[in-house]
Write a sequence for this structure.
């Protein structure tokens, strides 16, 4: 593994593994695996990772669509192979995202709230066949140690290249129990500061219901005429909405807009 890739592994080790006690393998049921398969069909793969041993304890066969293996068992894939998929220029961005995640879960959230959140961010890989793919990473904590640090984490990685060709330097923390979510958190500084986080900065609060509908249809590849027909409005109105949406969200173009909306969990990849 290169020094770049090692920097992420070493960060995880320092953050989650240092002075940790030996942990048992996560006991997942057949029903859990069945549900995981339903949640991650098509161009995606999932795994359960132990962040204190930095080992992957269970992984879906579909990872073979991304790494250079035809068939695997749970112990045949490690973090090294997963991290090696990321483009070299993505590594520093991923590390900053992981630093924000650590700040949020370890330093900001109360211990009893950690498992209430799902984290989402996008990144770019090159698969074993040399194909560039934009991926959506979604993860939720399954277990913690007594200090509240991650032990077992369930992660899904989904190819969203059919929706956007770029990733964004943002992380979203989606409350899966209906509590407060923190969407489109910037990561360029590599830290989470609740004092600087504003609900006005997330796309969900910036867009009206109609604008979000239009954004979702843009993500599906529909043009102004097709969107207008589906929503029973004129193509001129659609173009006006699109212009306003880009301005409201400070997005350079619709590609960036879609990427940010996916990273906020507002658009689910259609697999």
């Amino acid at each position: 593994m290169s020094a770049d890739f090692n920097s992420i592994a070493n960060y995880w080790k320092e953050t989650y593994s240092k002075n940790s006690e030996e942990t048992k393998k996560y006991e997942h049921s057949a029903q859990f695996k069945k549900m995981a398969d339903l949640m991650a069909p098509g161009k995606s793969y999932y795994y359960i990772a132990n962040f204190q041993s930095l080992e992957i304890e269970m992984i879906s066969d579909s990872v073979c669509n991304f790494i250079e293996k035809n068939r695997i068992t749970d112990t045949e894939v490690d973090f090294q192979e997963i991290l090696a998929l990321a483009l070299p220029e993505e590594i520093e961005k991923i590390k900053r995202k992981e630093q924000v995640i650590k700040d949020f879960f370890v330093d900001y959230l109360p211990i009893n709230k950690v498992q209430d959140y799902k984290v989402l961010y996008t990144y770019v890989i090159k698969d074993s066949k040399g194909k560039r793919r934009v991926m959506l990473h979604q993860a939720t904590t399954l277990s913690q140690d007594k200090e509240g640090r991650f032990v077992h984490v369930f992660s899904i990685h989904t190819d969203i290249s059919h929706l956007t060709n770029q990733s964004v330097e943002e992380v979203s923390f989606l409350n899966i129990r209906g509590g407060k979510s923190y969407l489109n958190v910037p990561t360029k500084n590599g830290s989470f500061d609740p004092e600087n986080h504003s609900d006005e900065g997330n796309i969900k609060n910036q867009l009206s219901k109609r604008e979000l509908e239009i954004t979702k249809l843009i993500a599906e590849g529909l043009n102004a005429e097709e969107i207008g027909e589906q929503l029973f409005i004129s193509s001129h109105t659609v173009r006006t909405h699109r212009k306003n949406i880009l301005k409201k969200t400070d997005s350079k173009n619709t590609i960036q807009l879609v990427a940010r909306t996916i990273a906020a969990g507002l658009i689910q990849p259609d697999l």
